[in-house]
Structure formats: C-alpha cells, structure tokens
Amino acid sequence: MSLILHMRTRGETEFDVRDGLVVCFDPMFAFAATDVEPFLQIPTNVPFFDNFGGDGSFNVYRSPECVVIDTAPRQFRAKTRPEFEKLDGRVGVDSGTIAFANASDVPALPDGLSVSFHLAPGTYRAWSEHNENSFADRRTILAVGPTVQLFLAGADATNINEIETQVAKAIRMKGEQRIKLVSELQQRIVDLHMQGCRDQRLKMLADAVKLTLPRRPRTKSK
Question: What CA–CA distance (Å, rounded) separates 4 from 6?
C-alpha cells in the first residue's frame, strides 16, 4: 500500500481542559526564553504553533463545534460563516508563535494581547489547517475543538481528512486488523465518491488502498 499525500492539517495535538477556561496567547509573554528550539520554555501540556505566517494581531471566532484563530482572514472569510461569532479581543503575536493553555497554567498576560474562551472540561484537539491550493503569504488558520474540522478546502474536506488519517494508520497495521480497516476505508471512499465528491484527494486515497473507483451513474439532462 503506497501513500503520497499532503496533509491539510498540521501539528494536531491533544490536550486536556481542566477548569473550563482556555486562553490563546503568544507564549513569549508568558514563558521564559531558552536557547533551544522553540526558544521558549513552553510546558509540554501547552499546544503551540509557529507555522501560520508570522506576527500580527488576530481575531478569534467561535462556532458550536470549535474555536478558530483567524491567522488568514482572506482564507477563512469569517463574514461568510454565520455559524461563527467573533469573541472579544485579539491575539497579539510578536514571536511568530501562538499557544493554547488552561488559563490557570499561564501567568498574568499583558492587557489586550490574548483571548480567553470557555470549554467544558475534557480532552480537545488543537490543529492548524493549511490551504494547499492558495499561494497567499497567509494561508493557515488555527483551531481548537473536540474533533478536527476543516474549513478551507470544501464541504468534504473533514471527511477526507479523517479517512486520510485512518489510511496512514492502516499502513502501519498487519494481519486481520489491517484487512478489516482497509475494507472499511474502501467503503467510505466509495460512498463519498458516489455522493458526488470531486476532491482530487479522494482518488489518491483510493489508490492508496488499492481501490478502483466505480463509475458514477450519469444524470439525465432535461
């Protein structure tokens, strides 16, 4: 089984929300400097990202499913997403890095440079989403939620990302477990294909699990 794919998500990290309040901030304002990359003493339980395009001041939006740090406004286009509301404040970044943490784990931050939001205690994912089809300088957004969701690559992108992750997992498996998982993935790929998905990544995933996509039924023109 071969797999030549370019992941749309990067740096997926799991972290626990303990007290219900999460803060998004530049870790330079909270943690001491060090001479070892990432050059800040960021605790291991604090997810951080430094590949989203550099410094700036960024809005934060929330939907019922997740929170998005809009580090690429021309990609996310928040005004076209009525399910998202803008949170108060902006995240000010001077080190090219953004982190998420339980508010109780972070010392006092400078006024106006961080955004806090409530999440029910539990385990969450933090990730960056990269628009591989754009040549803009800023084409990556950051997000936090119970499961990974994609917003920059079409309606089927989240499903395809999940399948892609499972295909990578299947490659590392052996025996009956691998056979069972591959069969399940083949069916999911066929279902998306027959529903009309035209994302070019679906064909790549089909090739990775040695699947020939069936022909879609032709629709009769009126």
Answer: 7
